Structure formats: C-alpha cells, structure tokens
Amino acid sequence: MKLNEALFPKLRLRRLRRTPALRRMVRETTLSVEDFIYPLFVAPGHGLRSEIGSMPGCYHFSPDTLPDEVEEISGLGIPAVILFGLPETKDEAGSEAYHPRGIVQEAIRAIKGAVPELLVITDVCLCEYTSHGHCGVVVDREVDNDQTLELLARTALSHAEAGADMVAPSDMMDGRVAAIRARLDESGFSHLPIMAYAAKYASAFYGPFREAAESAPQFGDRRGYQMDPPNVREALREVEQDILEGADIVMVKPALAYLDVIARVRQDFHHPVAAYNVSGEYAMLKAAARNGWLDGQQAALEVLTAIKRAGADLILTYHAKEAARWLKS
Questions:
Q1: What percent of the chain has pLDDT over 70?
Q2: pLDDT tens profile 224-267
Q3: Least confident among 1-5, 132-136, 137-141, 248-252
Q4: Catalytic site positions
Q5: How far apart are CA 19 and CA 308, in angstroms?
Q6: Quick check: 277 and 202 in contact, CB under 8 A?
C-alpha cells in the first residue's frame, strides 16, 4: 500500500479511542501501585501525627504512631516507604544521623516490627541533622566533600544495622556511593542495595520539603553540590559515575520538570530508574485543586503517568496513598 492510499478517510486514528475498553486495550503506559515509594517524615515524641502545613495529607509521625500508618500503606499495596528524620538535636557534624538510637533508626525498628514485609528505604544525608542545614561537613563556609563521605558511610551502616532494606544517598557528594558500598560490604551488608539520587537538581520545587524536614540551609545554598537545572549531559555523567561506584538503582530528582532527563537516563542506561515527584510538585497540585482550578485526582494521575511514560520504573510520590485508592476504583 502506498502511503497516500493510507491517509484519511481510510486511516482513522480515533477508531481505537471510542470506548474505555478500546483505550485500555491499546494503552502504552500502565501506572501501578507497585511503582510507588511513599515518603514518611519521622520526628521525636509520642503520639505524634501532625499534618504538614504546606503538604496537605502528609504528616510528621513519632515512631510509636508509625505501625498504624504502615499497616494502612501496606494494605493499599504500596511496596515501599522512604524515611526522612527530624532529630532531637542538631550539631555541626549531624551526629544524630548515625546514632544507633537516632530517629530514623528507631523508625526502622518500629516499621519492621509492625509490617516486616514492607520495604524500608532510608534517605542518607546530613542536612536534617546539621545545625547549619547543609548536606555535609562545613569548612570555611564550604561543604568539604571528602570529610563528608565518612559520615555518610557511618549513617548508611547505622541504617543497615537497624534493619533497613535499602539506603538512598541524596547528598550529591562525589564518591559517596563508593564510600557507602565499601562500608556496607566490609560490615556484612553486601546484599543491601543502594538507590542513588544520581541526578539531583538544585530546584525551586523543594520548598515544602524543607519545611517538613526542617532542613533549610542557614547560609548560602546548595548549588555547589546539587546540579544546575539547565544541564542534561552532566546528569548522564553523574548517573554513569554512580553506576560505576556500585549503585543498584539511579534516581532523577525532581521528576515533573525533568521528564526529559528521566527519558535520557532510561535510554542510555539499563539500571532501574527512580524519579522523585517532589514536595513542590505535590503542593502546587493540592493548592490548585483546593481552589477549584483543576481536578486534583485527574491531574495527579496524569502527572504520575507522565513520569512513568518518560521511563521511570519507580516513583517516589506523596500522592502514593491516594493514587493507590484511585487506581483500585
């Protein structure tokens, strides 16, 4: 058949869009609850379940309130959570990040005691734990890359010893995946995977998270270690380096404004790809929905589907619980 013989009216692309059944049958991208990783914020105290003002539907939990929450999460079919901790006290070295009785370590134990089969991933960074709010050791108002590696490795090991199933370094220090891999391997945790925040951009979309995690830097910014938003070739170099150092999963963060980066990483590498649908992306949809400017459910599912379509195998998202319910309905 010649090309001109296949054109309208013989070719009618709308034929396969006529009914929901037809659309489902030819759908190219399928969003599943099994794609989701749900972030949780844990804080000291007892009986704490306090909503985060800029992130409606998300809460601070104390370790004793986590069992009910994770039982609900598991019951929805969500396979994994990632933990972020707010410490009791902060210091220059972020020492509560790697304390054996630190807030994340206690949260891991609480979750594993309640729902052992739920996959527990831990964010490995120092920004929530340092008095200056930066992601590493500060020397002369600069983050010292190499001094920071030892503390990140200690933090990852303490999470592993507490029962974490996976660690996820988010600091963007050079060499941190290799340092963590070496420390885990020499300590008997060679089986523990690493999900590296491989291409983490210095983004404006982190604002609500910094309220939730109380992690805003006290001076300067993080542009000296997080990636410059205009760059994509650099992202591929970062991903490649993390893979060479031993990362098992690579992540792009944020997701919605960086779909092109997700697609390039998916195209160029064979490792599982995660994408973080971050706090600002979540909050702006919630705000628009509350104002009646868009359909919140439809918009959230469209965003999550776009992230999956771009090439993400795993999606870290604050929409996970509600999306799990929507997908079942």
A1: 98
A2: 889 999 999 999 999 999 999 999 999 999 999 999 999 999 99
A3: 1-5
A4: 200, 253
A5: 23
A6: no
* Number of CB atoms found within 10 A of residue 288's CB: 14
Architecture of domain 32-328: Alpha-Beta Barrel (3.20)
Identity (one letter) of the amino acid at 325?
A: R
Q: Which two tokens stand for residue 189?
A: 């945790």
Q: Where are the domains of the chain?
A: 32-328
The model carries a pTM of 0.95
Task: Report how far residue 190's alpha carbon sits from residue 125's, in angstroms, rounded to the nearest whole number.
Answer: 20
pLDDT of 270 > 60? The answer is yes
